Amino acid sequence: MTFFSIVIKRFWRVRCVPLIIVSHGLFALPQFDVKDFGAVGNGANLDTKAIQAAIDSCHRAGGGNVYLAKGTFLSGTIYLKSNVDLFVEKGATLLGSKDLSHYPSISSQYPSYTGEYVTNKAFIYAENAENISIEGQGIINGSGDAWIDGPYGFPSFSLRPRIIHFRGCENVQIRNVTLKNSASWVQSYQSCKNMVIDGVTVDSRENMDIEKPRYADAPGRNTDGLDLVDCQYVRISNCWINSGDDAICLKSFSPDEACRYITITNCIVSSNASGIKIGTETAGAFEDITINNCVVYDTRAEGIAILTTDGARIERINISNITLRNIKGGAIVVRLGNRNRTYRDGETINTPSVKGIIIENIQGKQISSEYACSIVGMKNNPIENVTIRNIILHTDGGESLEHAGINVPEADSNYPSGRMYGKLPCFGFYLRHVKNMVMDNVHLTFEKEDQRPAIIAENVQYMNFSNIRIQGAMNSPGFFRLNNAQKVTIRHFKPLSPADKFLWVGGETTSEIDIMDNDFRQVNEIIRFETDDLRTKVKIINNLE
Prior knowledge:
Blueprint: H1 3-14, E1 19-22, E2 25-28, E3 31-33, E4 42-46, H2 48-60, E5 64-68, E6 71-75, E7 78-79, E8 84-88, E9 92-96, E10 122-127, E11 130-135, E12 139-141, E13 162-167, E14 170-175, E15 178-180, E16 187-190, E17 193-198, E18 201-204, E19 226-229, E20 232-237, E21 240-243, E22 248-252, E23 258-265, E24 268-271, E25 276-282, E26 285-299, E27 304-308, E28 313-327, E29 332-336, E30 353-367, E31 373-376, E32 383-397, E33 429-448, E34 455-470, E35 480-491, E36 494-495, E37 499-506, E38 511-516, E39 523-529, E40 538-541
Parallel strand pairs: 3-5, 4-6, 5-8, 6-9, 7-10, 8-11, 9-12, 10-13, 11-14, 12-15, 13-16, 14-17, 15-18, 16-19, 17-20, 18-21, 19-22, 20-23, 21-24, 22-25, 23-26, 24-26, 25-27, 26-28, 27-29, 28-30, 29-31, 30-32, 31-33, 32-33, 33-34, 34-35, 34-36, 35-37, 35-38, 37-39, 38-40
Antiparallel strand pairs: 1-2
């Protein structure tokens, strides 16, 4: 970027008299006030044609600002075009019409969720546009409550307009606006590249009270706060999102596309579904994604979720510095399954994998212990190369000993979520079909006594547990349970409360278990073996007793 282009961009953003500096002199950057094109801005007259005329004129002129000054501008679908900055000033509201006929569905180069080549419904739509932006400190209100008694749920959510729907666009910026009261996904970006979403507020939660059933006060409208579908080179930062469905969600509809090169940072999110999630639509790949410095609170499903269920490959995901509070589902959920839904006619399904996950520096309070955290692959396709480090979770607790013996089904083809198994037989982490994992410096406590183990690992290989601190119960079957586990090391464990047993070991394939350098002075019995022959599979070395 040249010095002159930097100067131009700064003038444009601060709304001073914009200048374009070229070799033959100076001239003003075009600005287009929608009122000059006939917009009234009284909230009653339909201003769609005037706003679109301003956008079209700006586009034909080579680019500039289309701005909405103070007032309420009622509109149906508007189409954003290349080199146009839609600026909603502080004190201005762009208000969605309550007439569904004002949101036409037209043909599209891109297939929709259901595979049809249509736009779906949208308030602000762009396709194959470049250098577009939506900015300002104003409000974009989707009037979503107009359809509160209308069609909702899958797949009819395509009948209700999203606030922003961009497809195949490049060089996109969404900054500082407030998006509220959507009828469907609040923001949806599909197959877009080079995006900045910064300082955006999403206020679109139709059922506000997290302590009530999900649809206690209103039907659900699938109001995801922000969805990226097969997008690349994306920076999401400084956003506050309160949504009726997933707050921030990454998806893939196409087996030959991917979400990659994405950062999510400094965001605060709350949701009637998941907080920050990869999935569940996962046909392609998810690679090179970093999520850090975020707050997730009052969330009905997972706090953090990484899910592949339709053939996606997930690799190199870094999640760090997250606080969680009042999470009703699993705080941390990683799942590899094979629901194998397709979103394109005739498409093949890829072989799924999850490799290279780092989750660290996570603190949580009011965490559901009923569903616990879970990291679960498939019997012949394990999740690989996972690091869980510096985790402090205070769970609700309160479950009895009878729940420690729950049999967890494989459920590979089920809709993936932290609730898919029902109540889990542990209150901390349930690990199954995992290979090459490190769990270090993890503290697990409960509000009410929980008689289940804290950590269960089944059909796992090459596991290293170190510096684990766990609150236990005297009549629990143990802090840990290993079943069909190979090459597992547990070291530097110290209980946070007295307990009867430390570890239960079972499974015909269990072998090479090393228990070393631990403090068992508050534990009555170190290991309980399912069968006597397992005693030769475990080494107990240099522990304090």
